Every structure is written in structure tokens, then in C-alpha cells.
Amino acid sequence: MIAFVQRIADLRGAAQIRHGLAVVLLMVIPTHAIAWAAHLIAPKALAAPDYTWRWDTIAAAVLLMPVAETYAMRLVFFVLRKATQRQWVLYAFSALLWGLVHAGHESRGLHAAWGFLVMSICYLSLEKISVRQAMIGVTIIHATGNALTYLVYLPREVFGI
Question: Could you read off the pLDDT of 127-143 as tens digits, one per residue?
């Protein structure tokens, strides 16, 4: 999985975009599986995922938060690299940290740990090319993943499914 995500740094143009879309799916599908599994295992403690269609929430999730969290991710890696250069430690710490940041979510942040693990691998791979490419690439992947999440929950919102 790590090698697959890291491959994004080796591609350019349309191939990189296609691979980025595959990375989004690799991020989003397990994220939702984790959130729903957590709910099914402990329904009283962990509510079902709720992505209510409010325009301010969607705008924040798709436009604002991917930018802000990617900048924060960059800062986290800057600080962590003072302690270690081991990639797996950077990946794991980032996933744990972002899981804790998202602990207020219905799944108590379990869903975010996976997504941010994938985005961390992607960021550190793209950063070898340039910080700019890492920032743009991860922001787009994050925004696309969040937009896809809201689209998945659209039928429930519109039709009550």
C-alpha cells in the first residue's frame, strides 16, 4: 500500500491525476468502512457517520479544511523531523495525531487515522519533488476525498435512505 501511494511522486500529468484519483479511493473507502465498522461494533458509544448537507459544512470540508490541515501537516512534519527521519514513524505519528484531532467525530477519530495515514505517505512522497507539489497534491486529494464523502451521503440526505 505504501509503495502504491508513493508512486504518485514518480508520475506526471494525466498519469499522476489518474493515480491521485486511485489514492483518493484508497483513502475514502477504508475510511468509511472503519467508521461504519466502529458504529456496528459499538452502536451506543459510536454513532453512525453523519454527513449532513449544510452548505457551510460542505464548504469548510471541501475548501477550507483541506488547505488548513495540509499546512498543519507540513508543520507537524517540520517539527517531527527534528526528532526522527524514519518514514514509518512520521506516517504513524501523523495518523495518530490526526485521529486525535478528529476525535469529536462519530467514530472518535478512527476514520481519520486511515485517511491521514494515506495523505501523510502522499505528502512525504511528493515533498521529495517540491513542497509546493506536496501541498497542492495533498490538498486536492483531501478536498476530493471530502467531496466524494458528501456525494456518497447525498441520497440519504435527499431521499432519506
Answer: 999 999 999 999 999 99
Give the residue with greater pLDDT, 131 vs 103.
Answer: 131
> Residue 96: what are its φ and ψ, rounded to 5°?
-65, -45
21, 19, 15: which is closest to 4 by C-alpha? 19
CB-based contact 24:141 (threshold 8 Å): yes
Least confident range of 49-63, 71-85, 89-103, 123-137: 49-63
CB atoms within 10 A of CB 41: 9
DSSP code string of the chain? -HHHHHGGGG--HHHHHHHHHHHHHHHHHHHHHHHHHHHHHSTTTSPPP-----HHHHHIIIIIHHHHHHHHHHHHHHHHTTT---HHHHHHHHHHHHHHHTTTSTTTTHHHHHHHHHHHHHHHHHHTT-HHHHHHHHHHHHHHHHHHHHHHTHHHHHH--
Task: Give me 37's grid cell.
Answer: 465498522
Any idea which residue has 462519530 for its cell? 106
